[in-house]
Each structure stands twice: as structure tokens, then as C-alpha cells.
Structure prediction request, 1641 residues.
Amino acid sequence: MLLTLMVVLPFLGSVAAAFLPAGARNTAASWATSVTVACTVLVLLFYPEVQDGRVASVRFEWLPQFGIDVYLRMDGFAWLFALLVSLMGALVVLYARYYMSAEDPVPRFFSFLLAFMGAMLGIVLSGNLIQLVVFWELTSLTSFMLIAYWYHLPDARRAARMAVVVTVGGGLCLLLGVLMLGAIVGSYDLDDVLAAGDAIRAHRWYPTVLVLVALGALTKSAQFPFHFWLPQAMTAPTPVSAYLHSATMVKAGVFLLARLWPALYGSELWFWLITGAGAASLLVGAISATFQRDTKGVLAYSTISHLGLITMLLGMNSELALVAAVFHMMNHATFKASLFMGAGIVQHETGTRDMQRLSGLAHAMPLTATVATVAAAAMAGVPLLNGFLSKEMFFEESIVVGGATGLVITLPTIATIAGAFSVAYSVRFIHQVFFGRPATDLPKTPKEPTRGMLVPSALLVVACLLIGILPARTIGPVLETAMLSILGANLPEYRLVVWQGFTAPLLLSLTASTLGLSLYLLLLKRRATMRPTPLLSLVDASRLFDVGNVVVVRGAARVAHFFFTRRLQSQLLAIVGIALVAGVAAFGGVGWSAGDQPLHPLDPLFVLLWVGGAACAIGAAQQAKFHRLAALIMLGGAGLVTCLTFAWFSAPDLALTQITVEVVSVVLLLLGLRWLPRRIPFDDPRRRTPRARARRLRDVALALGAGTGAAALAFAVLTRPNGAEIRDFYVDNALEIANGRNVVNVILVDYRSFDTFGEITVVAIVAIIVYALLRRFRPAPESIDVPRAQRADPSPPVGVLDDPLPRGYMKIPAVLVRLLGPMAGLVSVYFLLRGHDAPGGGFVGGLVMATAVIVQYMVGGTMWVESRLRIHPQLWIALGLLTAGAAGILAWLAAKPFLSALSVDLHVPLLGDLHLSSVLLFDLGVYMLVIGAVVLMLVALAHQSLRSPRRTQFVEETADAQAAEEAAETSTSEASA
Amino acid sequence: MEAVYALAIGVLVAAGVWLLLRPRTFQVIMGLSLLSYATNLFIFGMGRLEIQRPPILSGGEATPALYADPVPQALVLTAIVIGFATTALFLVVLLALRGLSGTDHVDGREPEQ
Amino acid sequence: MTALLDHLPILPIAVPLFAAAAMLLVGDARRTLRYSIAFGSLTVQLAVALVLLYQTTDAAAHIWPNGIGVYEIGGWPAPFGIVLVVDRLSSMMLTLTATVALAALVYSTAHWDRPGQPFHSLFQLLVMGLNGAFLTGDLFNLFVFFEVLLAASYGLVLRGLGTARVRMGLHYIAVNLAASFLFLIGVALIYGTVGTLNMADLLGHVEALPPDDRALFDAGAWILGIAFLVKAGSWPLNSWLPGAYSVSIAPVAAVFAVMTKVGVYAVLRLGTLMSEDAAAATILGEILYYTGLVTLVSGMIGMLATQHLKRLVSYSVIVSSGLLLASLGLGIEAVTPPVLFYLATSVLTTAAFFLLTGMTDRTRLVMPPAHEPDAQGDILPVYMAFGVTSPDPYGTEEEVGAAIPAAMAFLGLMFVCCVLLVAGLPPLPGFVAKFTLLSVVLETAPVVGARNAGWVLAVAVLATGIVSVVALTRIGMRLFWSPAQRRTPRLHVVEAAPVAFLVLVCLGLTAASGPVMRFFDATARSLHDPDTYIETVLGSRVASRTEGDAQ
Prediction:
């Protein structure tokens, strides 16, 4: 339970801190301190338990199907790291309280810091690999936030992004590796995985797993070739550098390698991969560190190099090396964090990190100088300091393992060279910053820092000394517990003593020291250390990253143009083409074949009919560009032929509907024509380019293909027998149950009335949209003034409002049409009522009525009709929908499902027997809706023609409508042109 | 008859597709209308062709085999209506585009040379 | 009350319809009334959806056998009448729709719905169309509801007009009209060959077909499939998607997040009901895997290419449907539960993200037009590569962080959450979805390994993660971390709350992923056992025949 608390507490603390006001510096700091201290205490509480080899653990069920529980376990190794994380956390928080300037909004800072600590504790305590990955990514995220804490600095932004991309990428690789481990072992539990080492090494996936896990670890621990993000990350506030980027987060990678060591180690690949990367980082880091100008830069590169040392040890496949690795993790954390704090102090008091300007600070800040010097000595591996011990072990291992792997010379040489450079940069760091004559041109006059900043780093230095002098008493037992928890029985013999006599390792480290010193003196004399690192500085990681960025974006943009077209034609082309392919592909197996049904004898009249129809279709296709009216008429022709065909093949309802729809849509299109630009046929050079020809050819081919395909499919079906089950049911029950004779209509309003229901909804929707669109319709400027036809018209303008009839030649038609109106209404009602037994129905009825209204328009003129029109379309639409819906719900009263038919037979005096049915009600709804919708569309469209005469006024009203529009647009800032 | 019927569908589809791939909005809407004729005929054909057998019950007793398959007819009715509605919508939208962009090209701007 | 309970399945369709009609009658002036109608309707729908969800679980096995409820509209039994079928999948989709729609509606009440626009009616009708599409058990009726939701979406895309919207709207409409023709032809062919329109009735007839008739049927099924792929936004039929989604206003785009999934739903639903082998989860089988993969890649490239947040989210929609299609295309039964989990999370994610863009757009002073992103595609990286660096890299300049205003802090937090969701990083459910998917793929890798399909997919899934991080950090930094060109927007609670709500729902999914995944397991089981579905839908024939005679 305490374990859970240990992980949860920091997160809670982080949330709490986030809600503190930006100014609450002390509250935030003390809050963070108490949280970290509490965690430290919690960790310490567990020591007795882990010391005698037991494993504290707690488990909650989370996703059992996939074998994933929230499983926290703490063994010796985890304990050691948990202590490191929490203790270091406490110190850094204390330090940060004084480091961060007063006006900084520190609550945010501490909130992220605590969140990170929680995530880090989560990593070290994870008993389940997936869970480990979860916390792993969380640390990447929090480190992103902390690096970019000063996000107003461009460098900080870039560094943060670089870090997160690298580490998250590594994390994803790790995820895949872990998933594969899980697949191999059959469980994600750390215990099982560690137990199944041999199975894993034997599995054919082993190499892949190894590489993936290594990618995760190396990116996190900033190992070559992924080391470049770490120096960039130094733009973060120094406490962050001390905590995340030297002591803890970058240790997560090596921690993981050590954690999984029993499961993965022991193969050639492991050695070459891990030790190789380690060695590279060791050298690159050490050399670059020697040439940095930025104090934090020196420390950053030296961190890379020391992590390289640890990685190398981990890769050596020897238990002793593992011990040395873990030992050095601790030592490095202590002295490096202390050094970072020192560098931070220097920057805080002098205002710069530029080693060219810093000099002789020892006079101004002796205490800081002492502390830093000792820490640096530990980094250089001077005897009586902890760095010395682990470094000796490293040298020893390099000799032993070098002997074992046939790299007798190579490994020790690498080790010595790196050692030499580490001495060089340590000496340089101290010498140039603290010694020499005091600098004069510093931004601030240096002085000792407040105790709060000095104490943490001093404490760490004390730790270095204690461990360095009395290793066996201090770190000894802890280290042993840790190693036991990893290695168990095969923990090798090792001695933590300062003096081991004149051994080969000692010799090596002496050589290294002398080399290092001489190297530094040599370089110093020529001030070479201020030059950018030879060779290595040629690759500027940050610049590469940015250029990579540009390349990615530009490349992607280029490719995206291939993937996503902005032209409608290409999209339609794709759809048609793919449909064609699919249709053909279906017959790949058996091939197309006509059925064996007897065909109907050919009727010449029908053939003739369709010769005309085809002519119309083709004509329309060919004329649509330049002669729209002609094309429209021919379209009507084709429609007419279609409708005759329906009549021919015993579908009177279809014929009726088709013809009425035909009328209405042609009228609509005619109304629309008026707003389209005039297009005079001319010989456009663009149409004669080979590309244009090719395009047209392609389209013709596609069109023919589609046509043939459709024809073939249709013919294949037409010549096959019909599955009649459904039809029989419909016909059988039409009269008895649905009591209607017109089966089609019965289907529409009863069997499948739900389709009709949806269909009228569509009509309603479209009407609403059309209305809304046209209310804000803006005709193109050139088509606003009165069209030529009307200008040529000599007769006086039609539709003077108070006339009973329009003047001029329209008088006679007007009279006829006026008479026609009521009759049309009558007919439409008749269609509605008889629909159930004979061709007709609500829809046709509605359309007839609507057509009547249109005719009034055409003859009477827009203004005239609108002044007299008593239809409120929106009302009709709404009522239509409601009526149809009500007809559906009516059934509930009889506890029948939605849209079930209810009927009552009434005997009404005079009228006789009436058969009332909810079906009729439904059809009435359809009727009303259709009238409303169609009239609404036509009125809205026809109304536009009023805009040209009353142009100015219209423009004004749209003008302020537009203005309001713009305002709204900008206020809501919808992304529109 | 079946062959002619199928051919008719074919011609309508071909003309429709050709227009669908043209750059002018009016051509496209023409194409859509032609295609909707074709589709309606196609659906209707799925009930096979019957002459002189409208699915309107005459006698009291109903022998299904005597009537054309009413289902496709009902489907076509729905399809006609929906097709009509969407065509109307498309018309208005193309007018709006024409009004706003000043051109009747489907992409709202004339293709550059 | 019990009577009403019997009619629950129709409510998700009837309620929004009545709401829409009622709002048409209410004048523009009375906004509050319209809000309350719209809000009420959606809350009812959410409640109904949840009840239905409960009724399909094993906990309520006594209500519906096998967790499948059949509602015979007009009292006509399947396969003759149209039936609504509520099973786990459809009820889940209903719940998602209601949740997202509710959030979007609340959001829209902050000045996104200016009077004079039939916004709320169209919104309700769109939801009605979605619900209908998820509920119906009849092919042609599915077409009708597709048309309903498309028609409504046409209106909503165009909402606010402006050349960009109208142009994209025109493309969107044209493409979908073409797709609708394909849909009709496909359905017609299917009816012409097997003589039925009821989804549950198909399989029986299909198995009986002679091979050359079978070819006709397949042609129909595939053409139908293409219509679905257009909706699902699969390459190369998805060029309309980024444009249409990124020009439509935030709340609309949020609901569109569900709309894309309708295509996936249809592919999944019909696939399990049309093909003999239970494993093949789709109509198109093999091909779907490759289509999905290409779609996935195209989406990722789009994400990398664009500088416009809303557009980027649209591309992430493409990525997610690509991922869904590809995984379904693997033809592994075990993959279905994670896929469903991913579907759910990606819907919520996209919705939340689109809503968020509505607010972040406001922080921008100069706005790149949504429809021409690639025109100035390079600006930012160029600036990053060759532009500013700190004058003195040695920390001499003032290192004092700027306090973040609460509004920005909220937006930032939500943005981070959305990024985590899209990238599939912990601790949000995107991660759960991805690793469950991957673990299934890897466990079955030996099986699939022959084609290495599993591996390719696994890599692609991880690639989406890193690509999203790269693309989104780039935009996010410009949004939140370049205070120079930013202004802090005024946030309305009604805008902020829905986003937070959706993100919280996601967190809930993570926390409860155990039980949720168990539900999806059950869903997958019933999906891959079509016989039960068929028996339940057609079996009720006998019962209601007699009822029919009673009429």
C-alpha cells in the first residue's frame, strides 16, 4: 500500500502545485519539499524488508485479458534507484527554491518536477513491462515540459522538441520490443521475463528484441548516435539539468539495461551493440566535453561520456562489470548533480556560463569553489573519492573482458584515452572558472550564494567523500542488496576498498591522469580549449535536426500532392475507375455469362423510342458546355423516354412520379440557368493541347467502359430468374392485411414505410438547406443586371402588384392558369386519396400541387404571386414531418411497433362508411411535406430574379448582411477564406 | 427487349459519366441527372421486365406470379425522390459557388495555363 | 413505461426527428427554447443509448437473448419488413454518437449557431441519420439513412458560407452523390441476385448461389464496398475529406468524426454477414488490408505536410480509418476487440480535438486559410532552421519564465491530452488501443507472418505515434509558445466544458479498460458468429406472423 502511495503522492503533489497562483513561490517550494521528503522517508521505510532479500509488491487488476496489471514491486535494485530519485528530488527542490528567480511562475515548475519524479519512481518500481513503458513515456513528456519551461527562448523550444521526438521515438521502439518479449515469454510480468532468459535468448526474435530494447535505452540515456539531444537540453533551468539530465532520467536507459540484464545479456550481439554504443559515447562525450565553452556544456558532454562508461560495462556480459555499472550509476549521480548545482550557482551569481569570461571566482566564492573542486575531482576519478572506485573497477573489467573477447589492446586503450580526457576536462572546468586572475567584465559582481543553494551540492560532495573513503561501510551493503536482487545466486566476489595495491588498473588510471594533465596544459597554453571540438563539431546536431525538419515538411508536402488531389475531376475519375475495376474483377473467376430466361420479343416501337432516348442523352452530353438550354431540353427528352419505359414495363406509379419530378426539376434547372455565365463557343487553344486531347480520350474510354459494364450487369440480371419470396409475401398480404390494391403504394406507406419516412426527411433537409443558402445568395456581378431576353422584350414589365391580371400578352395564359389552379389542387388531392388502390399517392399529389404553384409563377410573375401566395413552406414542411411521425407513433397506442398500420371503419351519416387508416395520415404527411419543400425551393430560387431589378437595394441589404457576416466570422474566427 | 433495355442503361451511364468528368458545374449536374435515370432504370430492371402486369391487384384473390415485382418499383420511387432532392441541392450549391467565385468551374477557379 | 421500453430502439431515430421538426416551427427569436429542445433531445438519446447498451450486455440477458434486440417497424417481420437490430456494436455506436453530439451541441451554443440558420434542425437530423444507419437491419434502408445523414451534413459543411466552404462543399457533395449511385447499383445487384434486402437474410441466399450468379453478387457487394470506402475516407477516395472537414465549423467537424466511422461500421457489419468464413471481417477481405495501409500512410504524410491544425486533425481522421481498415483486413478474429476499442477512442479523440481547434483558432491573430495549407507549408520549419536563436547561448539573457494565463493553460493542457490521444501515448486510451492491437497482432504473428502483414501493420502503428508527435509538437509550439503573435482568447464555459468532458471520458476508458475490453470481446464474439444474429433476426418471423394475421 505504501508503495502505491510512493508513486501516487508525487502526482497528487504535482496536481496540487499546478493550482497554486503563479506568485506563490514559497508555498510551492515548501509543498514540493515536503512531498519529496515524504517520498524519501517512504523509501527508507522499505530498507529492512529489501535488505533481507524480500520483494515488496502490490498489484491491482487493470487489463487482465492482456495480462496487464498495475504491479509495483520493490527489490534491492529498485530500492536503490527509488532512493536516488526521491533523495535527489528533495535536494534539487531545495536548490531550485533559491535558484529560480522571484518573478518566475515557479508553481508550474514544481508541478512538472513532481510529476516527473512520480513517473521516474513509476519506472523503477514497475513490475510489469508495459506499465514500465507507460511511465517511460511520461518521463519523456515531463522532461519536454521542463526543458521548454522558459519557452520564450527559441533554443529551449527547439531543444525540448528534439528531446521529445528522440525519446518518444525510442520509447515506441521499446514498446514494440517489450510486446515481443511478452509474446515470447507469454507474460509481461518482470518476474516471468527475468526467469525466462534462456527461452528469450533461444528465440528467433531475440536479435530484434535486443535491438528494439537497446534503441529505447540508448535514446533515453543519450548514447551515441542519439546523444545530440542532451547538450541541447541544457537550455533547461539548471535544477532540471541536475535532476533529469544527469542524475535520474538519463539513468533510466541504463537502469532498464541493468533491469533486463539477466533476460538479455550473454550474447555476442549484446556485447557488440551495447559495449560498442557505450564506447563510442564514452569517447565522443569525453573529447567534446574538453572543448566546450559553456560550463553546462562541459557537464552535459561529460554526462554522455560517463553514461557511455556505464553502458560499456553493462555490455560486457560479466557480473563484475554489472556491479561496477550499478556502482558508477550512483557515483556519477552524486558528483554530477553537485557539479551542475555548482555551475548553476556560478551562473546565478555571475550571470553567465561562458568559460571565456569566467575566471578566478575562487576569491569571490571560496566555498562554492571548494565544493565544485571536490566534485570535479570525483569526476576525474581522484583517489579517496567515489569516482575513483568505480573507475578502477571499469579499468579492471576492460582488461579482463578485453582479454576474454580478444580486444586485449582495444578496450583498455579506449578506457585510458577516455580517462585522460575526463581528467583534462575536469581540471579545465575547475581551473578556468575558479582560478587564474579574477574576471572583471562579468554581468554581475560574484559573491557567495545563499546557503540554500550551497547546502544541497555540499551534501552531495560529502556523500562522494564518505563513499570514496569508507566504501564498504557506506555504500557496500546497499550495493550488495541491489546486486543480489539482480544476480541472486551468481553474485560474484568483489571488494570495495580504496587501496588494492599496485595493480594494472591503478597503472592505467595513473597513465590516464598524467596524460590528461599534460593534454590540458598543452591545450591551455594554446588556448585551444575554446575552439569548437575538432572534427566532432562539424556535425551540428541541432542544425541537422532543423534541416531534417524542413526536408520532412517539404518532402511530405510534395508527396501529399500526389496522395491528395484538390481537383474534383480527378476524385470522380478515381471513383468511377475503381468502381469499374471492382465490377470487372468480380467476374475474374467465372467470367460473365448471360442467363437463360426466355427474352421478350423485340418491339420496334420500343427500339425507336430508345434510339431517340440515346440520341437525346448523347446530344445532352455533347451540348452541355456551350448550349445549356439545348442540353437541358434533350435531358428532358431522355427523362421522358425513361418515364415511358417505366409505363411500358408495367410500372404506372413510376411513370407518374418520374414525369412530375421531371417537370419540377427541369423548371428548377431553368431557373438556375439564368445565373450561369454566358459561354460563347470559341476555339480555345487549351482544348487543342495534346494533354487536353489525351484527357478527353481517357474520359471517353472510361465513359464507354462504365456504360458497357452497367449494360452487361443489367443484361446478366435481366436474363436470370427472379427470386420471388419477398414479392409473393407482399402481394399475398396486400389486400388482406394492408388492405390496399396498389402494392407499390402499400410498400411505400406500409411494408417499407420507414424508407419513405427517411426519404421525405431528405427532401425536407434539402429544402431547408436550399432556403438557407439562397437567403444569402450572392449572384456574380456580371449576371445581376436584367438578362438580354428581358431587355429585348418590348412589353411593359409584368406583375404590377395591384393589377388583378398581368398586362400584355400574358393576360390570356394568366386567366387560364388562374382557372387551372383550383383544379390542380383537386387533382392532387384525388391522387393522394386514391393512392392506396391505384397509381398515385401522397408524393405525386404533392408534386402536382407544387407544379400548379410554379405555373402561377411562370405566368403571373414572381412579385405578383409572392404578394398573393398564402403558403408558408417551412410550416408545411414541419407539419408534414410531424404528421408522418405522428402516424408512426399512433401505433404505440395499440402497443404495436412504430409505423404499424391502424385502421378504423366509421359509419358517418350522409357520407356512409369511411375507412380511416393511419397509413392515410402518413401519406398526408408526405403530401404536405412535398408541397412545402418543393414550393420552398422554387420560391427561393425564383425569388432571386427579383434581385436584378431592385439591384441597389439588394446590394445594400446584402452589404450589411455581409458586414455582420464578417464580424461573426472573425469573432468566431472560423477558418474561411 | 432486354438487350435494348440494357443498352439504354449503358448509353445513359456512358453519357452521364462523360459529363461527370467535365470541368463545368452545369455539365456535372447534367451528368448527375443522366446517371440518376440510368440508376433508376437499373434498379427497376432488377425486378425483371414484365409487360401488362402492373402490381395493382384486380381480383379479390391475388396470385403473385401474375404481377411484376413491386419491390424494385418501390425502391426506384424512393431513389427518384432522393435523386431529385440532391440534384436540387447541387444546383443551388453550384449557383452559390458561381456567385462567390465568379466562375462555373468545379474547382471554383479557372485552371491556370 | 414498459410499453415505452419496448419501443426504445426507435427512439434514437424518432426523438431527433421530432426535435428537428419542432425547432422548424420555433422562430429564430426564441433561441433558449430551441436550445432546450435540442439539448433535451440529445440527453434523451444518450440515456436511451446507454439503456440499450446495458440491454445488450450479458448482465441483461433476460431482456434480449444473445444481446440482440429486434424491432419490427410497421409490425412486418424480417425479411419482409424493415427491422431495427440493436446489438452490442450498434448500441456502442449509438452511445458514441450521442456522447459526441451532446458535447458538440453544448459547444455550439457559444455563438457557433447564429440565428437565421437551421443549424439545430440539421444537427438533429444528422444525428438521426447516424443513429438510423447504425440501427437498421435492411440494406436499402441503410442507403436511405446514409442519404439523410449526408443531406444534413451537406448543409452543415456549408454553414457560414464563404468561397472556401462552398467550393469544398461542392466537391464533398459531388463525390458523395457519385458514391450514392454506386450504393444504389450495389444494393440493386444484390437484390437482383439474392432477392432480399434484409442483411440477416443475405448469407443464407448467398451460400445457395451458383458460381456465375455469385460473381454478379460479388460485383454488387464490391461496388457497395466502394461506396462505404468513400465514406470511410480510404485512399484514393478521400481527397474530399481534409477539405470538407477543415472548412466546417468546429462543432460540426466534431460530429463528422463519427460520420467517417459509419463507413467502417458498414464494412464491418456487412462483412461479417456476407462472407462464409467468420474470420473475414469485411466485404473486401485481403484488399482492405492494403487499402487501409495506404490510407494510413497517406494520412501520416498529410499530417506531416500541413501547418493548419484543423486540417491536421482531418488527416488524423484518415490515419485512424486507415488503421481500422488495415487491421480488419488482417482477417484475424482476435483483432476485433482492440479495433473496436481503437474506434471508440479515436471517435472521442477526434471530436475533442476538433472542438479544441475552434478555440485555438481564436488565439491566432493572423490566420492561414484552412483550404490552402500547403501554400505556406514551409514557413515554420524555415523559421526554425534558419531563423532566430538566442543572442547569447551562454544563459546571459533574462531567464524568467512568463506566467501562462489560465485560459491558455487550459487550452495547452487539453492540447497535450489530444496529442497523447492521437499519438497513442500513455496514459490515455489511445495507448491502450494501440498496444492491445499490437499484442494481438504479435501473438498471431506466426499465423500472419507468412505475409508479414502483421509486422508491417505493427511498424505502421508505431510510426503513426512518432509522426503525430513530430507534426503536433510543431503546430502546438507555434500555437502556445510563441506569445509574440498570440492573444489569449476569452473562453466560454460552454466551449471549454465539452472538450474537458470528452477528455475525461477518454481517461475513464483507460481506467476502466478492463471491463470495456470485456464488452468488446463479447461484441467481437457476436460479430464473428453471424448465425446467432441471423437466427435472432429472422427467427422472430414466426412470432410476429401470427401477430400480423391478428391485424
Remarks:
- Chain B touches chain A through 93 residues (CB under 8 Å).
- Helices of chain B lie at 2-20, 25-45, 70-101.
